[in-house]
Structures are given as C-alpha cells and as structure tokens.
Amino acid sequence: MADEPTTSSRRSKLSDQPEQQPLLPGLPDHLAHLCLALVPPPLLYSVSRSWRRLLYSPSFPPFLSLYALLSFQNPITNRLDHITFSSYDPISATWHLLPPPPPDLPLPSFLLCHTSFIARCLPIQSVSLSGHLLLLSGTTHGLRPALHRPLIFHPVSNRWRHGPPIPSPRRWCAAGGAGGAVYMASGIGTDYSPSVARSVERWDLVGPAWEKVAPLRDGKFSREAVEAIGLRGKLCMVNVKGNAAKQGVVYDIGSNRWEEMPQGMLAGWNGPASALDEDVMYVIDEARGALIEYNGEEDRWREILQLEALKGAVQIDAGGGRVCIVCAGGTRIAVAAVVERPARMWFVDPPPGTRAVAVHVLPRMSMVES
C-alpha cells in the first residue's frame, strides 16, 4: 500500500492545480449562463472545456439530439435479438449509450422476429412526448404483451422511471401522443379481445393513472401496430401501413369524439407518419420514396423531396425543424431539414453492428464532459 501523503504535500498538490476560471471574465457565472445561452451550441463545444461542460450541464438549455432504438444482429443466427438505446449528439457527431434502467425497472426481453412471421419484424412501439422517451408496447417470446407499465426516459435528468400500470396491456396497437398525453388504442393482449380491440386509453404524463376515452367503432385497428399522430388538437391514425387499402379515423380531444378522416389525408397516408410540433404532418410514401407534407386547409399533400433511399422507410419522427427517417432495413437514418427551402437531407449511420428500429428527436442528455 502506498504511503498516505502528508499535510504539506497535499497543500502543495492543491496549490499546483489551476483555479477554476470564470465562464466569462468579469461576470458571475449565473450572468454568463444567460449570455452564453445565445451562442450556437457548436461554437460553445469548440471554444473551451468549461463552455463544453456548461453545454451538457442540466442547468443549461438543451439542444436537440437524435435518439434511436437499436437492434443487434446475432452473428450466428443472423437474426435481430437484442435491443439497446443510444443518442446521437449532432454537435460532437458521436453516439452515446443511454444509461441502463435501474434493477427495479428491468428492460423487457422483446421478441423482434418469430418463425411464424417470415420476413417481418415484430414491432416495438415508442413515443417521444414532452421531452420524454416512452416505451409502450412490444411482444415477449411467449407472444404476450411485453410492457405492463410504460418505461420512460428523461434525457435532461438522465433517469428512467415507470408510468402507472396499463389497465389492458396490449401489442399491435395504435400508439401516439397529443396535448401532453399519450394514447394507446385497439390492439390485442395475449389473445384477441373485442373489448380491448375497441378500447382507447390515455395517460397524462403528470397524472396518477390511465383513463378510458371514447371507444372506437369497431376492432379493425388491431390489424397492425401503427402511429397515432397528434395534430392541432386531434389524434389521427390509419389501421394499415403502406399503400394497402385502409381506414382512417380522427379523435377530437376537446369533444371526446371520433370522426371520419378527411379523404385527402387518408389518400396520401401511404407510409410512416409524424407531426412537427403537433402542427404540420409528414408522411413518407414508402413506395415512391417521397417525403410529403399535409395541408389541412386544402386537404391535400405537397411533396418536399423524393429519394430512392427513402423507399421502404420503416419509421419517422419530427422535431426541431427536422424529420428523421429510419430507412429500409434500419441500416441508415436520413435527416431532412424540412424548414429549409429547398429541403436539405443528410444521413447518419447507426453504431457498428446495429440496425435502427425507431428514432426520436429529444433534448440532449446531461453528461459530465471532461
């Protein structure tokens, strides 16, 4: 064992360490925070270590990052059989693993592929809402609902937590968020139940429990796991993915009533969908590889861009003026700056050995930056 340093040697070491420099000379740090909050994050990252630490601190306004549910491919079976979560920091252009859930909040063992469903992955449904990432639905190896309570990650605090128990745990449902609440509609439990297939449940993220809202007219929305899109006080969803014939419904949150979907909206909903700030809706027409934007006043779609790489897109999410797209096979993630004219697009590769299952746009994680 090494000798314990003497008091004089400890003082010498302390005196050799440089004093912590102020963020901005001549200003107390709380005022420097206000000034530096106006500086673009890439500049803060590149100037100094102290500014970089500030950029990732919980007290500093967070910039947006890309979050991904990733699957690892088993080299022996060549099948996707493990899920992890990572965040892509656009400032440092690096991936960071999310901290694992604590032992009392274990991550379920999701089944991604099954011999009975050749060439089709079983869905894991996740939602980004009010700065949180929520896992809502999936399938176990026994073909049962994987989640009986939402599993929630808050990036700014770097913490996981559970939501309240789901009254009717389900899979193959419609899931989405609107107005600060998350919705689960239709789907099946361990077995098909007509009452579950018609039911719709809502949980306000600050509320103590789920509540039932007006049920669906029938159980036809238990056919596929689909997105429920929050758009200007309504929740919109279709019951089939892609270009197949489908039905669409719209839930009016204020009146607690279901309505028929406008014909124009239904006709163009031919792939993964998301809404930017619950104000503008985007869809990838997966057959044409086109990113399209919905105009509610005219009930029609406008093409933003078309690209071969977007054909067969799996899932999308929107935030911060960007639409992030999981391309076919999950081997690439496309990012489109839809607020620019013309729209600009670039690609992000998932970490080596992984494939993207879903992406979300959320505030960056807090971390200690050396």
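The record above closes out task 2.4. Task 2.5 opens with a second protein, given below.
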Amino acid sequence: MIVHDAAAAFITIITAATTWIEGLAAALVFVLAVIAFAAAPLIAPTTRAARRPADQPAVPARQRPVPSWAHTQPYDYDEAA
C-alpha cells in the first residue's frame, strides 16, 4: 500500500510539474506573439527600405490619366484680363 501511495504521489508531482511547464510555455508564446504583433509595423518599413535601391523613391509617383474635360493648356490670366 505504501508503494502504491508513493507511486501515486510521484505521478501527481510529475503531472503538476508538466502542467506548470505547459502553462509557462503557453504564457511565453502569448507574450512573444504580442511582442511580434507590436513590433512588426516597426520592423517592416525598415526591411522594405533595405530591399529598395537607394535611387528609387520611397513612394512612387502615381500617374493619373487626365480626363477629357480637364484643361490641358496652362491658364493665361493676362489674356483673360
């Protein structure tokens, strides 16, 4: 009976230790995920800038088509006056 109780106590201690390790590992994973989620916006622009050649602008100029009704010639205010 004593051997059975000692074995049960040993199993209980091992189970408790395993549960604590799993809980600490889950907490650590959660903390690392929060840090990665918060740090990603800070790291991503730096990574993009490192991949971009130095002579390329950070934001490319967007070429928009000119509508048919828009003025294509510069205004001549002297003539209008």
